[in-house]
Amino acid sequence: MAKITFNSYKKAIQDHYEIVKNKDITSVLLTPSPAQLRNYCTMLVDKGLSKKDEEIFKAFFETKSDEKLKKSIESCNTDKFKTIISFLKDKRDSEMALRIEMASIIVDFSPRPYADFLTSNSIATSDNKQFVTVINGDNDSETKVRFGVEEVKEEIVKAKNFSSKNIKKKITLGLIGLIGISSIAYTAKNLIIPDAQCMQWQNNHYEKVDCNKQNQQGIIKSIDIIPFDPIKAELIKIKVSDTTTFFKNGKAILWYCKVNGKPEFFNTHGIHPETGKALKPVTKYIINKYVK
Predict the structure, then answer these.
(1) Distance from first CA to last CA of the chain, Å, rounded?
(2) 194: three-class secondary structure by DSSP
(3) Is the peptide bond before 113 cis (omega within 30 degrees of 0)?
(4) Rounded (10°) CA dihedral 79, 83, 88, 93
(5) Crossing angle for the helix pair 97-106 and 82-89, nearest 10 degrees?
(6) Three-state SS for 210?
């Protein structure tokens, strides 16, 4: 059984795109262009985004704290969408997590984002089959083995062609097989979702850690061990000076949060991992007061 990885997530999104592109009545997904995808994103905002999708949108479009999300989309450079189109249509790989998450929202892939895909009890399929679930559990855990409904129906039809003796034999063998599969699935649990698929803030960046590791103490509170999230994992606390580049094309490219009255600077949008406060785009006032 294959280990669930970020590459698994990317492949599942691409497979899902192949299914939905021909069902899109707008034809945007079938023949996407950068400008079309930008307009499509504004339409998704109008329809309403989930909290997680909105967070990804704000990070991708570099939305300022005092700026409307739709405004930042309308003013963005459409070149941002070229790599997303290449990822979906040409199956070109991309290591930037934000682009992959944007692709998952655009094609409405579920479960998303990657953290939910990694920890979900469902297994993504490329043909949208329905499933039946066999559960083998105890007080501490539950193992689910899933079979396609159509496959089960087929076996039932075949069984009707046998004598009752053969049917009983088939059922007995089937139960033995299910128990064996369940046992294998339980044993392979750590291979499918290993303990290392968690992360914890370490000084100035996130590191993958054993999910059972004890929490460490931070500046304000104990730093939690959380499921690995490729977007959050990109967060890095950086040291700045008067030669640091804080803006690009008039937009802030660094974020900050005050801790004990002094700002700490980070490379991207998000939440301060130790205080839990939202990071803010850096301003000239903050630079002049605390840096220069």
Answers:
(1) 56
(2) coil
(3) yes
(4) 180
(5) 70
(6) coil
Tokens of residue 255, six digits: 């974020």
Rounded CA-CA distance 255/64 in Å is 10
Instruction: Spell out the per-residue pLDDT of the chain, length 292, in tens.
Output: 456 788 888 999 999 999 888 887 777 888 889 999 999 999 999 989 999 999 999 999 999 988 999 999 999 999 989 999 999 988 887 778 889 999 999 999 999 998 888 877 444 443 444 433 333 333 333 333 344 444 444 544 554 554 455 555 655 565 555 555 555 454 444 444 444 578 889 889 988 888 877 666 555 456 788 888 888 888 999 999 988 999 988 899 999 999 999 999 999 888 899 888 899 999 999 999 999 8
**CA atoms of 265 and 74, how far apart (whole Å):** 28
- What distance in Å separates the CA atoms of residue 288 and residue 141, rounded to the nearest whole number? 55
- What's the full length of the chain, in residues? 292
Residues contacting 282, CB < 8 A, separation 6+: 246, 247, 252, 254, 255, 256, 265
Residue 235 and residue 120: Cα distance in Å, rounded? 24
Mode of pairing for the β-strands spanning 280-281 and 255-259? antiparallel
CA distance 71 to 65: 12
Mention every residue, 6+ apart, whose C-beta is less than 8 A from residue 30: 21, 22, 24
| Structure tokens given for 231 | 């977007």
Non-local CB neighbours of 257 within 8 Å, separated by 6+ positions:
263, 264, 266, 272, 275, 277, 278, 279, 280
pTM over cut 0.70: no
Determine the 3-state secondary structure of 36 from DSSP: helix
